[in-house]
Automatic annotation (TrEMBL), chain A:
Gene3D superfamilies: Rod shape-determining protein MreC, domain 1, Rod shape-determining protein MreC, domain 2. Keywords: Cell shape, Coiled coil. GO terms for cellular component: plasma membrane. Residues 72-116 form a coiled coil. Belongs to the MreC family. This is Cell shape-determining protein MreC. Residues 126-270 form the Rod shape-determining protein MreC beta-barrel core domain. Signal peptide: none annotated. Pfam families: MreC.
TrEMBL record, chain B:
It comes from the Bacteria. GO terms for cellular component: plasma membrane. The keyword Nucleotidyltransferase does not apply. Pfam families: MreD (PF04093). The gene is mreD. The chain crosses the membrane at residues 74-93, 100-117, 129-155. It comes from Vreelandella azerica. Involved in formation of the rod shape of the cell. May also contribute to regulation of formation of penicillin-binding proteins. The keyword Coiled coil does not apply. Keywords: Cell inner membrane, Cell membrane, Cell shape, Membrane, Transmembrane, Transmembrane helix. This is Rod shape-determining protein MreD. It is found in: Cell inner membrane; Cell membrane. It is a multi-pass membrane protein.
């Protein structure tokens, strides 16, 4: 039997460490300073795609299991509820269509610039960031779907964040709540413009540089102002939750709560503020497509519950 | 004590990749701070068990994979894991003579040092405030160490001897 010397590699780890530290520092520097690394990163991300897939398996299994094992009545109830919601939404959609055309007509009368419809594609959450000190998530659309860095993302309730890195089939989104995220907003009530910055929490944002005399109240709706050219104007962002005037501070401390459900939403829309170069993009995934049965059931409910039965759910936002 | 068997490198990588999956497994918000350093733990284990085969370069490659998954600047975890491997190479002769409790203490020191380094690197790369919460994973990992080490040693004996 060969006796192995105890210190067989001597000073070797030291040299290796030196080399690795150099390489890692160089990588970090290049990654921070040069945008060309985005492409390299996108290619390399393909290597870890299997790991990401494996990691998302348990939650997928769990949601599949809940659907499969949940009892018949619960599913029926949910189905009923969703049908009613769809009915309300379709009704709202009809009214919005007429309002849009009316708005366009009024704008034409005033000779104002016309709003353009913003294109979008749907997307689904793959994984949330597991780093407790930053707020990011990964979604299932990449540059194959036309996603680009800086692209805004919304859910059903408001603005969610923006894309910070894109690989072939997935991209990484920085959420509103992250401390390194800021965006220009305007108050819907009076048009005052401010900057909103994340606070490192999912449920609070800071409105920066608000003078003590400014007309900002609790409950004010903040929408994107579109001034930075990155987010299209008019999307709801947050609602002001507290305004504190401290005489010792130069500015009032204004906190707001994001409208988007940053921790709960699973489906999102990626917006394209610039028109898409190709028109034949599939907006709705098959997971969103309405089947013939669904439409039938809506029509059926339509017969059962007349639209005017519940006016409280039909007011426009 | 029976001579511990030699584990094929592919098994080492399999377990490391498994630890990588655990490391990036989604957890509820608020629980993430309490996630043990799975990858660090298992990497220390292999560095101590097979110091002539698992070393600094393994740490570098694993760290790069973790960087890609986590979306942090490329090289951040590569740096910390190579430093971890280096520290292990410095202390592995002593480590083997320790009892499990002493080993756990040393694991706490190693992981704590590496976590501190990671926090420093983060402050370099952007706005970031150091919080003491970064030590919690090291504590939990150190507490897990005796069980993990015993389990893996038993598995190795059963599968590869």
């Amino acid at each position: 039997m060969i006796i192995k010397p105890l210190f067989s590699h001597g000073a070797l780890p030291g040299y290796r460490l030196f080399f690795c530290v150099l390489a890692a520092s160089a990588l970090m520097f290049v990654d921070q300073r040069f945008t060309r690394m985005e492409a390299v990163r996108a290619q390399l991300s393909m290597v870890v795609a299997p790991v990401q897939w494996v990691v998302s398996l348990p939650s997928d299994l769990l949601s599949w299991g809940t659907v499969t094992l949940s009892d018949h009545q619960a599913l029926l109830d949910e189905n009923q509820r969703l049908r009613e919601q769809m009915l309300t939404l379709s009704h709202r959609g009809q009214r919005i269509a007429s309002l849009v055309s009316e708005n366009a007509e009024l704008r034409r009368l005033l000779n104002a610039a016309e709003y353009r419809e913003v294109d979008f594609i749907s997307t689904e959450l793959i994984s949330l960031d597991n780093d407790p000190f930053s707020h990011q998530m990964v979604i299932d659309r990449g540059h194959r779907n036309g996603v680009y860095v800086g692209q805004p993302l919304i859910d059903a309730f408001g603005l969610v964040g923006q894309v910070t890195a894109v690989s072939a089939y997935s991209s990484r989104v920085l959420l509103l709540g992250d401390a390194s995220h800021a965006l220009p907003v305007r108050i819907n009530r009076n048009g005052l413009r401010y900057i909103v910055q994340g606070s490192g929490n999912y449920d609070a944002l800071d409105v920066l540089h608000v003078p003590d005399t400014a007309d900002v109240r609790e409950g004010d709706l903040l929408t994107t102002s579109g001034l930075a050219g990155r987010f299209p104007a008019g999307y709801p962002v947050a609602r002001v939750t507290s305004v504190v005037h401290d005489p010792g501070e130069p500015f009032a401390q204004v906190r707001a709560e994001p409208l988007a459900r940053l921790q709960r939403s699973r489906y999102f829309l990626l917006l394209f503020p610039q028109p898409l170069p190709y028109a034949e993009i599939a907006i709705w995934d098959d997971s969103f497509a309405l089947s013939y049965e669904t439409l039938q059931s809506v029509l059926q409910i339509n017969g059962l519950f007349p639209l005017s039965a519940d006016p409280s759910t039909m007011e426009l936002p | 004590m029976a001579k511990a068997p030699v584990v094929p490198l592919i098994m080492v990588w399999f377990t490391l990749l498994f630890a990588l999956c655990l490391q990036v497994m989604p957890l509820a918000e608020g629980w993430q701070v309490y996630r043990p350093e799975w990858l660090g733990l298992l990497f220390i284990y292999w560095c101590m068990r097979a110091p002539d085969r698992v070393g600094v370069f393994h740490g570098f490659v694993l760290g790069l994979l973790l960087d890609l998954i986590e979306g942090v600047p490329l090289g951040q975890n590569a740096l910390t894991l190579s430093v971890l491997a280096f520290l292990c190479a410095l202390v592995y002769t002593r480590f083997r003579t320790y009892s499990l409790v002493q080993q756990a203490l040393l694991v706490l020191v190693l992981l704590g040092l590496v976590q501190l380094l990671e926090q420093w690197v983060r402050t370099l790369s952007g706005d970031f405030s150091i919080h003491l919460a970064f030590l919690i994973p090291s504590f939990i990992s150190a507490v897990l160490w005796p069980w993990l080490a015993t389990m893996f040693l038993a598995l190795e004996r059963r599968l590869f001897s």
